[in-house]
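To: structure desk
From: M.T.
Subject: fold request, one chain
Message: Could you run this one when you get a chance? Sequence is below, nothing fancy, just the single chain.
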Amino acid sequence: MSNSDTSPHISSVHTPTEVKKLLAIALPIMGAQIAQSGMSVADTLMVGRLGADALAAVALGTSIWMPLFLLLAGVLLGLTPFIAQWNGAKDVSKIGPFAFQGFWLGLALACFSILIMLIHPWILDLMQVPMHLYDSVSDYLLGIMLGFPAIGLYQTMRSFTEGLGFTKPVLLISLASLVVNIIANATLIFGFGPIPELGVLGCGLATAIAMWSSVLFMWLYIKKQPRYKTCNLLEHPALPDTQAIKEIARVGLPIGVAIFFEVGLFTTIALFIAHLGSTDVAAHQIALNVTSVTFMIPLSLAMALTVRVGQGIGGQGQQAAHRISLIGIFCTVIACTFTASIMFFLPEPIARLYTQDSDVIALAVSLLHLAAIFQLSDAIQVSASGAMRGYKDTKIIMPITLFSYWVIGMGLGYILGLTDWILPASGVSGFWHGLIAGLSCAAILLCWRLRIIWRRP
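Reply: Done. Structure tokens follow.
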């Protein structure tokens, strides 16, 4: 393509205008993501009142189900670039029938996730988790399992509406589901009237109730809103279409596995350090909980960037999409500088929101300082990944993240945390030093790949 062909498209991407378009998509997603992760915060804050053992049990249970949830959600993100590009090219007739196949893929992945959760005793044995926590972990996961089919249905509808650029409904529904979660938590964890105190089992059940409420709210919204009329996926019921499901999985599976690798890295640390005691696990859970919330900001911008790059390719061409990518990465770095500052300068007040245990607070403060350091690397790697999803260039993401997170991050973390090979074993802090190295490696490699995409004719 000649310069004369591309320059009008490049000049049409005005930086302030593009920032506004990106934020118009990202801010509702961000609110929705924070509200969604707020469920985990609510779980942690409420269960924390039951003691360190209950908090550790929820942390261990979360380390099993959360990576599976994000794998499922990540795979269904494979719908978004297809929908965004067809929407950008004004070819909306393909959207509804194709998006409906996400329901079948989502339900299949939900069943797979439940099977994995059913073997959790073997996982706990492998990681030498103290026996007195087994029953509590099992109770928590039992409740969570009941909500997993809802995740497959909801994430399909969410990817559909976000691919169209309609992100406000996701925010409203996430806030409503958070309210449902908090009320259900208060009722089921501590008991109310004839409902007995269920402890961590009640926490899991409350999350499942919130998941199913999200499905109901989103289904009603899509069904009633006229804006979806031209491509309403609910009007295209069909049996599984193997070809369409393969197409979604081809783009989405590397995304889901990449997110699984990253979040699995964080959550698996809880299993590795379980034998060190409840203090280490509880402090790790607090730091993980905080970073999970702050991660929603770059993740939301990256999800919006996927939509904007897809729309740019469909409507303006490759060169415009390249400039959109740069603007999106820059915005993400700026946002994460802000969250890093909060974690670095206010770690103790944050930790005290979760517990009054002085030992847990002291360890959590040191972990939050380390978390602040890797915010920049995290911003770059997740936004670069988001841009690559917009180009449908996702296969390379999986090996890059596998190497960065698990070879570099987990490998170095294990050496520093549990061995004396380089320095005296530093426990959970050593794992968080490994996280800094792994995320930095991912940022470098994903930016290298993105530059290769930009140089293509």
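Reply (cont.): The chain has one domain: 9-454. Let me know if you need anything else for the meeting.
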